[in-house]
UniProtKB/TrEMBL annotation:
<keyword id="KW-0408">Iron</keyword>
<keyword id="KW-0223">Dioxygenase</keyword>
<dbReference type="Pfam" id="PF13640">
    <property type="entry name" value="2OG-FeII_Oxy_3"/>
</dbReference>
<dbReference type="InterPro" id="IPR006620">
    <property type="entry name" value="Pro_4_hyd_alph"/>
</dbReference>
<keyword id="KW-0479">Metal-binding</keyword>
<keyword id="KW-0847">Vitamin C</keyword>
<keyword id="KW-0560">Oxidoreductase</keyword>
<dbReference type="GO" id="GO:0004656">
    <property type="term" value="F:procollagen-proline 4-dioxygenase activity"/>
</dbReference>
<dbReference type="InterPro" id="IPR005123">
    <property type="entry name" value="Oxoglu/Fe-dep_dioxygenase_dom"/>
</dbReference>
<dbReference type="InterPro" id="IPR044862">
    <property type="entry name" value="Pro_4_hyd_alph_FE2OG_OXY"/>
</dbReference>
<protein>
    <submittedName>
        <fullName>Proline dioxygenase</fullName>
    </submittedName>
</protein>
<dbReference type="GO" id="GO:0005506">
    <property type="term" value="F:iron ion binding"/>
</dbReference>
<dbReference type="InterPro" id="IPR045054">
    <property type="entry name" value="P4HA-like"/>
</dbReference>
<dbReference type="GO" id="GO:0031418">
    <property type="term" value="F:L-ascorbic acid binding"/>
</dbReference>
<feature type="domain" description="Fe2OG dioxygenase">
    <location>
        <begin position="179"/>
        <end position="288"/>
    </location>
</feature>
Amino acid sequence: MPVVDTAWEEWLSTNVARGCSPDSMIGAMVQAGFVTDAARAAVLKAFGASPDSPMFAAVAATEAALAKAAPQTYQYDEMPVARGNVIRAHDRDVRVLMRCERPQVIVFADVLSPDECAEMIERSRHRLKRSTTVNPDTGKEDVIRNRTSEGIWYQRGEDEFIERMDRRIASLMNWPVENGEGLQILHYGTTGEYRPHFDYFPPDQPGSAVHTSQGGQRVATLVIYLNDVADGGETIFPEAGMSVAAQQGGAVYFRYMNGQRQLDPLTLHGGAPVLGGDKWIMTKWVRERAYG
């Protein structure tokens, strides 16, 4: 169970200063594993709201209304990824290690060779910048404590090597190359982590419209591990009770939008803290329509 440590206190004060609503902050903390009562108390404390204040009453009214609303159940339909234990992905055979139906998760081996992993790391090492996340209210990219990594983006097909990676990944995900965002390389040092979050853009957040205006909603993610991690650094799915260890050349695929355009809340995921060594990953997000 998470606790309100220094990092969470900074997150709270930052989001209060940004003008985020108490309801959205409580929701984010609950998604990250907090009990609703603890999240509500922490957020109201950050706003300086007392039990008899109008804000306290407004939050209680919103929670009551949400409790009465019947949630829409996510309908699992057939994944686009090919069946079988070995998938021919453009120029390489990729092994399937595990499939999960709810949420829709597949773990692969041999997506990249050791030499390809090393090349991606070396060509990225000196170009890293601090990673950002999407501000839910404005859609702008912000640096926050919840994501302690450095990264770099590559343009889709920017050279022969990147184009080969793009085509292999598109073939593996069985999704058009032109619907993919550029590859992102991320580096996490020891203690580096990315707390639980969704890769899709929540429709109820104003800032999401900025990102879905081009290419539509994100549909699925592929995270490829470029090195072995000595300890920690797993990709965790807290709502599903699942974690995937980082093994060089392997990958985890997860799909969160179905054919009805519903979004799967079970795909809440994060990068567990790196406890030994460091972690390099390559991420591909794919959209509904052509992107870029």
